[in-house]
Design a protein that fits this description.
The chain has 35 helices and eleven strands. The protein is α+β, with helices and mostly antiparallel strands and 790 residues long. Strands 5-4-3-6-7 form a five-stranded mixed sheet, sandwiched between helices. A hairpin with a 4-residue loop joins strand 1 and strand 2.
Length: 790
């Protein structure tokens, strides 16, 4: 047997095997191909290594068949999918990301089956599906419901949209659906509660939010406007609006509202970054070119303001103090401390509170108007947001109802000391004369204030409007006001005799005009800076005409047209150079294209070019090789001249978040504000996109619209005091009256605290009323002393 395996034996006693065992290597191993008595031929390892060393491996094109991700640049193989979608922490360790020179088919197969490559493939197909806006078969099946079911959903979505647009609570959703059923509109018995309404409004808000985000993504530049205020829940709220321009169309969109940690600049910066990330705009912050605000130190402070902190990351941001706020501040500065202005403000504010806080006095005033056959109005509040139009409305109301005010207050002065004081102020010759004079002076300023509140306003348009208003104000004279002349000459107003002396009207008029013009120049001083002055090329009203001074100075007009805007284009190109480069704008061609744009506009629109819009200009010349200068003009139009929309947003906030809804959480408040401010009107609202979003949204179980919950009936018999009773219990998921019940932990919680939803708290109003009464007494005392001296 030993001989069969090639083992020699010996006849020398028992020592043969022992000696053999001592000389062989254990364990004995079986070799395929071994034969008894013959040595096994073994391969020479040195020959194999020598073959591999001399072998030259090359990349084969057949390896790329069916592998679109495999790329070969002539030297290395790379995986296109892993390069784009590979995990950041694993990129350095991936051979096919750096480049592989191991031209073995087995290496390609191993990479194709590895976990990291499979993840990259999943990311690739997800991005492709998102980019092409494809839907899965299941999603298409859900969306393609029958027409009856979709019509039922449309009724419900339209109902919740209309409720939000009209500032109605979500609890109205239940009864308005019941009203539709009574009208014969069948839209199912399910989803008729407030929780379903909340889900519907969330989908509507997400649809609107995605439209806002797409507008920003489709624009090359955008700006932010920000302002803060306190709501009825005593919470500091900050609103963010976005202003962008695409192909000449200016778009102003509400972005969000929220509560920062505090109002210091650092916390506001954290708030802005957080909201930008939540709205998926973090990758577009390099487009930010402007920031508009109300001029507070925490916003525009030169050392630690919010704009200064933003410039540390985005160096080309331009901070702009709201031009409408500046006008109000200039007006306040000019009349600050003026004795007649203080007396007039005291009178107007006293009239407002006198009739606001007393139903009896309001009723008596209306009766007095009926007796006098007068169509008057109640007094308007002169302060509040302190816009100039408020002062004009207060003065118009004063003179429209002047006879009724005087008649009623003089009648009530016998029993009411405050009415007595107001009646004396109303017949004061100096106060009424000053009111008429001020009404004429602020008329051009009111028009300017309304112009500065236009949403499509540009800095160039604002600069022209400011200059024109200053000219109109300078040309105003007291002699041109017939109403003022009549009061001065006859010492009576609308048939009522006035008491006291009249001041020098002409001198006072010139003094007030000079002060207002001087303060306006101080407040708008930075409009003459190079950057803001260069933005005036974005207003066609600033462009020179072909006949400007042409008849007087020969070719001066032609030279003005040729040279106009060249310096401005260079200034803007230098100021926003980095942002323009990232938007793929060729700065070297801007001046050349600017000259071409002027020629095209003058030739196409001729003398009517100022009445054309930038949208028409973009549509007409976007294919004429001047895209670079058109993009620069979009940047100019993206700069925010005002932050008025933030103030308007707070007005809507007061209508949404009332004293009975003061516990709205931030996300729910954002959804309501977004629908209120950005969604179309009720007549133009299309619910289909929101319905599609709701149908495919995960994490929410859907019911059939023809589903009716079976009532669970249990009958039990019990003996109490030998009396047999049958009890029937009905179990249903729907509450008897859901409008009176609030689920714990839901977004809307009805509070029991009495909070003031007016512009100021009750304590502030009481303090203001007390101060006004004290001022009335002082003014009356001063008038009596003046009359005694006379």
């Amino acid at each position: 047997m030993m001989k069969m395996w090639g083992i020699a034996t010996s006849n020398q006693g028992g020592r043969g095997l022992a000696s053999f065992v001592g000389t062989i290597y254990w364990p004995i191993k079986f070799e395929v191909g071994a034969k008894p008595g013959k040595a096994l031929k073994r391969k020479n390892e040195s020959d194999k290594s020598k073959y591999e060393k001399n072998r030259k491996r090359e990349f084969k094109d057949t390896w790329q068949e069916g592998r679109i991700w495999l790329k070969f640049d002539g030297e290395k193989m790379t995986c296109d999918l892993c390069t784009k979608f590979g995990a950041g922490e694993l990129r350095s360790s991936q051979t096919f990301i750096k480049g592989s020179t191991n031209f073995r088919y087995s290496g390609i197969v191993d990479h194709e089956n590895c976990t990291y490559h499979r993840r990259a493939v999943v990311h690739y197909y997800a991005e492709e599906e998102k980019r092409e806006n494809k839907q899965s078969i299941a999603q298409k099946t859900v969306i393609s419901l029958n027409q009856a079911v979709r019509q039922s959903l449309m009724f419900k979505f339209r109902n919740i949209h209309a409720l939000i647009k009209n500032n109605r609570p979500i609890s109205d959703f239940t009864w308005i659906n019941k009203l539709d059923e009574q009208k014969g509109l069948e839209h199912g018995t399910t989803y008729n509660n407030r929780w379903a309404a909340t889900a519907f409004l969330e989908c509507i808000a997400e649809t609107v939010r995605s439209e806002v985000t797409e507008n920003v993504r489709g624009s090359k530049f955008f700006s932010l406007t920000m302002d803060g205020s306190t709501d009825c829940g005593t919470i500091e709220q900050e609103t963010l609006f976005i202003r962008c321009c695409s192909e000449g169309k200016i778009m102003l969109k509400f972005l969000c509202i929220g509560e920062p940690r505090s109002t210091c600049a650092q916390d506001l910066l954290t708030f802005v970054k957080k909201k930008i990330q939540e709205n998926d705009l973090g990758d577009h912050m390099h487009k930010l070119v402007g920031f508009g605000c109300d001029g507070a130190s925490n916003m525009l402070g030169c050392h630690n303001g919010l704009v200064t902190l933003l410039r540390q990351e985005y160096s080309e941001i331009l901070g702009i103090h709201c031009l409408a706020h500046r006008l109000e501040l200039a007006y306040k500065d000019a009349l600050k401390g003026d004795r007649l202005y203080v007396q007039l403000s005291t009178l107007l504010l006293g009239l407002y509170y006198f009739y606001k806080n007393s139903a009896k006095q309001r009723k008596n005033l209306r009766e007095c108007m009926e007796v006098l056959n007068l169509k008057g109005t109640l007094p308007h509040r002169v302060n509040g947001s302190r816009w100039l139009p408020h002062m004009q409305r207060a003065l118009d109301s004063l003179f429209r109802s002047y006879p009724a005010f005087v008649s009623h207050l003089q009648d009530a002065s016998h029993t009411n000391p405050k009415a007595n004081g107001l009646a004396r102020l109303l017949v004061s010759s100096s106060i009424i004369t000053f009111a008429v004079l001020l009404q004429g002076i602020i008329s051009p300023l009111v028009r300017l204030s309304l112009t500065l509140q236009r949403p499509d306003l540009t800095i160039g348009d604002a600069k022209i409007a400011i200059a024109a208003s200053k000219d109109v104000l300078s040309q105003y004279t007291a002699n041109s006001n017939e109403k003022l002349k009549e009061i001065v000459e006859k010492k009576e107003c609308l048939g009522w005799k006035l008491k006291g002396n009249v001041f020098d009207v002409d001198t006072t008029s010139e003094t007030i005009k000079r002060r207002i013009v001087m303060k306006i120049d101080e407040r708008y001083q930075d409009l003459q800076d190079n950057i803001l002055d260069a933005t005036t090329i974005g207003s066609l009203k600033n462009w020179p005409t072909e006949n400007t001074e042409g008849t007087k100075k020969g070719n001066t007009a032609q030279l003005n047209i040729e040279d106009y805007g060249v310096h401005h284009v260079k200034v803007l190109s230098d100021r926003f150079g980095k942002t323009l480069c990232e938007a793929h704008v060729d700065k070297e061609k801007l001046v050349e294209e600017w000259q071409m744009l002027k020629c095209l506009v003058y030739q196409r629109f001729k003398r009517n070019f100022r009445s054309s819009s930038w949208e028409d200009i973009h549509a007409a010349f976007k294919d004429d090789g001047i895209t670079n200068i058109l993009n620069l003009l979009d940047l100019v139009h993206s700069l925010p001249p005002t932050s008025v929309l933030n103030e308007s947003g707070f007005n809507q906030l007061k209508l949404i978040k009332t004293d009975r809804r003061h516990s709205l959480n931030e996300q729910h408040l954002n959804d309501l504000m977004l629908i209120k401010l950005q969604s179309p009107p009720v007549s133009e609202f299309d619910p289909n996109p929101a319905i599609d979003r709701w149908l495919i949204s995960p994490g929410r179980s859907k019911r059939r619209f023809d589903y009716k919950r079976a009532k669970k009936i249990t009958t039990c018999t019990s003996n109490v005091n030998d009396v047999e009773m049958d009890c029937t219990f009905t179990s249903d998921n729907e509450c008897a009256d859901e409008s009176d019940i609030e689920k714990e932990g839901e977004r809307v919680v009805l509070g029991d605290e009495d909070r003031n939803s007016d512009e100021e708290s009750d304590e502030e109003c009481e303090q203001e009323l007390y101060e006004n009464e004290r001022m009335i007494e002082e003014v009356v005392r001063e008038m009596e002393m003046e009359m005694e001296m006379c």
